[in-house]
Amino acid sequence: MAGFEPQSIRNIVVVGHKGAGKTSLIEALLYVSGTTQTLGSVFNKTSILDDEVEEQSRSATLQTSVAHVVWRKTKINLLDTPGEGGLFGDTRTAMGAADAVVLVISGKDGVQPMTERLNNWAIELGIPRYFVFTKCDLEHVQINATLEATKKRLRIALAPLQIPIGEGTSLKGVVELLGRKAYLQKDGPNAKPAGDVPADVKDALEKGRSQLVDDVAATDDALTEKYLEAGDLTDKEMEAGLHKAIASGAVVPTFFVGSLGPYGAASLLDAMVDIFPDPTKRAPFKAKGEADPRPCTKDAPLAAFCFKTTIDQHAGRTSYVRIMSGVLKTDGAVMVDDQKERIGQMFNAVGKATGPQLGEAYAGDIVAIAKLKAVKTGDVLCEDRKPFIFAAPEPPPALFARVIVMTDRGSGEKIVQGLTKLAEEDCSLKIYQDEQTHDQIVAGLSQLHLDITLERLKRRFGLDVVLGPPRIPYRETISRKATGIEGKHKKQTGGHGQFGVCYIDMEPTPRGAGFIFDDAIVGGAIPRNFIPSVEKGVVKAAKRGFLAGNQVVDFKVRLYDGKYHDVDSSDAAFQIAGSKAFKEAMAKAGPTILEPVVKMEITVPTANLGDVMGDLNGRRGRILGTETQDAFSVINALAPLVEVLEYEPKLRALTQGSGTFTMTMDRYEPVPAMLQDKIIKESGFKAVTEDE
Question: What domains are defined for the chain?
Answer without folding.
Answer: 6-196+251-281 (3.40.50.300), 303-382 (2.40.30.10), 400-468 (3.30.70.870), 475-589 (3.30.230.10), 594-678 (3.30.70.240)
